[in-house]
Write a structure and sequence with these properties.
With 69 residues, the chain is mainly beta. Helix content is 12%, strand content 43%. The chain has one domain.
């Protein structure tokens, strides 16, 4: 996951994608979404392990892209 600046809002964004297969298992395309990091950060605040702790989300290079702080 690489982050980039959305050209319309100026906010940091991360794009995600997953393959889409039909009932027979044939690849038919991809489902894609852009997520604003400020929204992702709000979601991270809710992450807990067994009701405690904090959560972080890292990109593929190991950089923190969302944290509770």
């Amino acid at each position: 996951m690489d982050t980039y600046v959305d050209r319309i809002t100026g906010k940091l964004v991360v794009s995600i994608a997953a393959p889409y297969h039909n009932a027979a298992g044939a690849y038919r395309g991809a489902v894609c979404e852009d997520i604003f990091l400020d929204i992702l950060g709000e979601e991270v605040k809710e992450l807990k392990f067994q009701g405690e702790g904090t959560g972080d989300i890292f990109d593929n290079a190991g950089n923190i892209i969302a944290t509770e702080d």
